[in-house]
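Open question from group meeting: does this chain pack into something compact, or does most of it stay loose? Before anyone orders reagents, we agreed to write out a predicted structure and look at it together. Recording both the input and the output here so the notebook holds the full record.
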Amino acid sequence: MLEAFALELEQHVEAEGEVRGAVCRCVGELAQTLKPQYADAIRCVEVDGVTVKDYAAEARITSNNAAVRIFRAREALRKQVTRSCGACAEHGCLDCTCESSSGHCH
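Structure tokens returned:
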């Protein structure tokens, strides 16, 4: 019984990783449709894990401006995901059926 539970747990982690990968690809594609400065902010802070302070230095803007840019980038990305994936994204559903050929969710 313990072996069966371990196998079930292992399969669940793999499936979770696959879902996360699909979501990340979808969001990554949508992030590239944003203004270049927003796409860069999302990539640096959210994907690469750069601190806001370091991002500000890299972008040659103040930390306050960087924080505002990141906030606006997140809002723009949220709107893109909602627009592209509709109610699926709005309600947190992971069974998104958007067409991948149009640059949207899978």
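Observations to bring back to the group:
Confidence is low (pLDDT under 50) at residues 99-106.
The radius of gyration is 17 Å.
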